[in-house]
Amino acid sequence: MKIIVTVKQVPDTSGKVAVNPDGTLDRASMQTIINPDDMNAVEAALKLKDELGCKVVAFTMGPPPAEGMLRELMAMGVDEGVLVSAREFGGSDTYATSQIIAAAIDTYGVDDDDIILAGRQAIDGDTAQVGPQIAEKLHLPQVTYAGEIKKEGNTLTVKRMLEDGYMTIKVGTPCMITCIKELNTPRYLSVGGAFEAYSKPLSVMDYNALKDHPLIDATTIGLKGSPTNIFKSFTPPQKGVGLMLEGADKGTTDKLAGILASKHII
Amino acid sequence: MDFHLTKEQLLVRKMYREFAENEVKPLAAEIDEEERFPMETVEKMAKLGMMGIYFPKEYGGAGGDVLSYAMCVEELAKVCGTTAVIVSAHTSLCCAPIFEHGTEEQKKKYLPDLCSGRKIGAFGLTEPNAGTDASGQQTTAVLEGDHYVLNGSKCFITNGNVADTFVVFAMTDKSKGNHGITAFIVEKDFPGFSQGKHEKKMGIRGSSTCDLIFEDCIVPKENLLGQEGKGFKIAMQTLDGGRIGIASQALGLGEGAIDEVVKYTQERVQFHKRLSQFQNTQFQIADMHTRMQASQFLVYSAAMKKQNHEPYSMDAAMAKLYAAESASDVTRRAVQLFGGYGYTREYPVERMMRDAKITEIYEGTSEVQRMVIASHLGVK
Which residues of A touch B307 (CB under 8 A)? Predict the structure, then answer.
């Protein structure tokens, strides 16, 4: 049994967001972080590893410096890293990206008792599409928005956190689960982990390594293989903070009910 | 001297920074105010390997290096002087002498618990009448069959009330002076051992400081550390290493104060200008930063020499002397730049100023560091 986690290096949006004249993100001038939801997926994988002693492999697609992110994850406890990196893959949208990552995971090999974890969505594109698309392309069942994961044998019980409630689903392995921040609190990397990180195995899958896979051809990868193109990027106007009511007494709840009634919500 | 940090050091420093910011900073004012030892933080640090950074994995350490340890103390001290000294005293003053002078049995017995943070370590050298003049030890140890009997007391012991394992010094042969001092590993549960009351201090108020009392305390013979009569040498060598820790603490305190000043002076407006726009502010901050940068070079240089098994006694003394005096100067200036607000407990700079003062005193006063440096230069 192993757990594959897909992760992405994203621009740190807590700093300044830089946009190129063509509307795309100016990634080179921005600091990078590990996508926050992906950290929850990594933590979920490491918790299962703590419990079951299985191997955890992190996959990412990105330029060579993304190795730094994989090493950081190894310092947290991830056992192995796979960097999917080639010029041919650049400019991929979610369709092309999932095509490539699915091919990479398939090439690495998925066993019957394996689990693939992904973050719900990346903070740069906010699409939440890559995880589900990878599952589709690998013909695996998927459960999205996991806020709780329990494993018994080869069955996972996953609590999906939805806007209007939650849904509990049982799913057999191998499967894909996308994780949300409510799932856990990611651990810090450890001192010992940091000093081991650079001696753990890391492999690079380039175009040559994947080009013969059925999912890969020039029309399905990179900018040319991407059905979507960025038309414009902009910083949306800040939303107001909303109205805050403080208090735990009947007066406050009456006031809340009054406000909701006046807006015809109740 | 090459100050290029390794990939591992860069990785681990990132963690220290995040940990300090998220876990340590939010508690700093509270533990100072309440004079409370932050045991919850120690437990978190223990899980991350921060209680045994540069010791080999075979003894339960994290397998890191001395510079990574110095950077840990530095990053903690940027936000909390108390938390920094907990790690420093535990590592430099208890784990290190056991690792460097202990027998294989002693290392296997004590280091895994200490390095994993299951137990906290402390060091007992100072006595009411043996401070800077550490050779004036009045605590005695007498061999009786298979054990020594210790009598006397120690004071100002960092981590004293919370530690389980102590490296303690006592006189086994008064007639031999320094050569009559012997080191022992003492466990908190040994008969005749007790801890005194918590010392109320000006700074590092969350740190546990107390007396250790030995009343016919029974210490098994196998807990002798090193050889009989070699205790003074062990103490001095241990303090050489300890000075890297305290110099790192001073370094972090100064740097942390500068971080606060840079932020505050860009927000505070007087005479229709931000404080940062006044040349006095700019010059002050430039001087403060230069002093701390020079301190960092000295501290890192001493740490790397220790790591490389080069002589580092003078380097550690210079690092501690300069970083400690710089930290006191920089934190005092930080309070001044904050003005009235800096004097209140609403902002952290007054705490940093109080915390910085001790770095000029403990583990060898600044005057002792000058004595060490001069003697290395042959000036006697």
Answer: none
Q: What is the mean pLDDT of each run of 10 residues along chain A (266 residues)?
A: 94 76 72 92 96 95 93 98 92 88 95 94 82 93 94 94 92 95 96 97 95 87 81 74 86 92 88
| Shortest CA gap B315–chain A (Å) | 26
Instruction: Report the predicted TM-score, pTM, of the whole model to 2 decimal places.
Output: 0.91
B307: closest CA of chain A, how far (Å): 15
Strand-pair partners of A119: A179
| Contacts (Cβ under 8 Å, ≥6 apart) of B359 | B246, B247, B249, B250, B253, B320, B323, B324, B327, B328
Chain A interface, best mutation among B15, B18, B87, by max A CB count within 10 A: B15
d(CA A228, CA B289): 49
Long-range CB contacts (within 8 A, 24+) of B303-312: B303/B66, B303/B67, B303/B69, B303/B70, B303/B244, B303/B248, B304/B1, B304/B66, B304/B67, B306/B66, B306/B241, B306/B244, B307/B54, B307/B65, B307/B66, B307/B67, B312/B240, B312/B244
A36 Cβ contact partners less than 8 Å away, ≥ 6 residues apart: A119, A123, A181
Q: What does the pLDDT read at residue B363?
A: 95
Nearest residue in chain B measured CA to CA from A197 = B8
Write the DSSP string, B210-266: EEEEEEEEEEEGGGEES-TT-HHHHHHHHHHHHHHHHHHHHHHHHHHHHHHHHHHHH
Q: What does the pLDDT read at residue A24?
A: 67
CB contact under 8 A, B8 and A190: no
pLDDT tens readout for residues A35-85? 999 999 999 999 999 999 999 999 999 999 999 999 999 999 999 999 999
Catalytic residue among B199, B255, B350, B363: B363
